[in-house]
Amino acid sequence: MDDTTFITIIQIIATGSILGYASYLDFKTRRVSNRFWIVLSVIAIAILSLRMVIEEVRLEYLLILVPILAILADVYIDFRDDSPLAGLAPLLEYGCAIASTIILAYMWRDDEYFLHLMTIPVMMFAIIVMYAFDIIRGGADAKALIALSIMFPFYPQIDIFPIIALGDWYTEVFFPFSFIVLVNAAILVAFLPILFVVKNIASREFEIPYAFLGYKMDADEIRGKHVWLMEHIVDGNHVRHTKPRRKEELESEVELLVAAGHERLWITPKVPFIIPIFASLVFTTIVGNILLPIMNL
Fold first, then answer.
1. What residues are paired with 269 via a beta bridge?
2. Euclidean distance between the first and final Cα of the chain, in Å?
3. What's the CA gap between 273 and 186, in Å, rounded?
4. In terms of Cα–Cα distance, which of 13, 73, 64, 7 is closest to 38?
5. Residue 220 CA neighbour count, 13 Å, CB half
6. Model's pTM, two decimal places?
7. Residue 156's Cα: distance from chain center in Å?
8. Model confidence pLDDT, tens digit, residues 60-118
9. Tally: H helices and E strands in the chain
10. Looking only at Cα atoms, what is the longest distance across the chain?
11. Which residue, 121, 4, 98, is CA-closest to 51?
């Protein structure tokens, strides 16, 4: 077993162990502490640094840690005071991350190895943007994907895996491993609207567009469940919406709806997305980039 394969095995064991336990917590409570993703990110940075030393690449490539650490600083360091630094911190952190990424990309734009490393800050930026636009809803989901981006700038290869040949190196760069993990996880979740539709037709409560996004529950059953409401009382008026609020006081909102005469309410379940991410990690490690056969058709 060569050193790279050994490192890959350590990556998979560490990531699988943390994601596996986080999946259990996500299923039970829909809450996963930041410490899981901080630990996974620290392990990923240590393994990445070790790999570069073992593979005897230019030590200047460790500068890739500048944008990585700048982004992580914004994600995990929370300035709670009203000092000018609290307002300037995100601007300084992302300014540093963007500037250093551009400079590093220009310096080693023709180096195959370094372009793999560049996928880390690029994917981190992409995940943060997706979270900001509610494409990725959970903060823990986004942080898990950020940690995966740091852990796997290169596709993991062990013996006959992945089954699908990786193709050219630039395919790996344009479709990073963490991106394919996200795509596969999203495909798993994409089956949920079909299940919702079947359930709503069976219960004779089919109503577009809500039937594709969730289902109805009795108000008494909602309390304590891991769900978002798709209807609220706003300024005394009953309103429905298809985009759940990221933060809401579930019990008080339900009480308002019941007081207004609404006993059966449209809800959308909080999907424990860490579970599809974990399943996708295993699948993608074994199978590989499922986009490659599609692109070659």
1. 227
2. 35
3. 9
4. 73
5. 0
6. 0.92
7. 19
8. 999 999 999 999 999 998 766 666 666 788 899 999 999 999 999 999 999 999 999 99
9. 13, 5
10. 70
11. 4
As to burial, measured by CB atoms within 10 angstroms (0-12 exposed, 13-18 middle, 19+ buried), residue 4 is middle
CB 8 within 8 A of CB 263: no
Q: Express each pLDDT in 235-265 by its tens digit.
A: 899 999 888 776 778 889 999 999 999 999 9
Contact 205, 190 (CB under 8 A): no
Measuring CA to CA, how many Å separate 188 from each of 126, 128, 183, 271? 20, 21, 9, 11
Residue with tokens 């195959």: 112
| Number of Cβ atoms within 10 Å of the Cβ of 182 | 26
Q: What is the DSSP letter of 216?
A: E
Task: Report the length, in residues, of the chain.
Answer: 297
Count of CB atoms situated within 10 Å of the CB of 42: 13
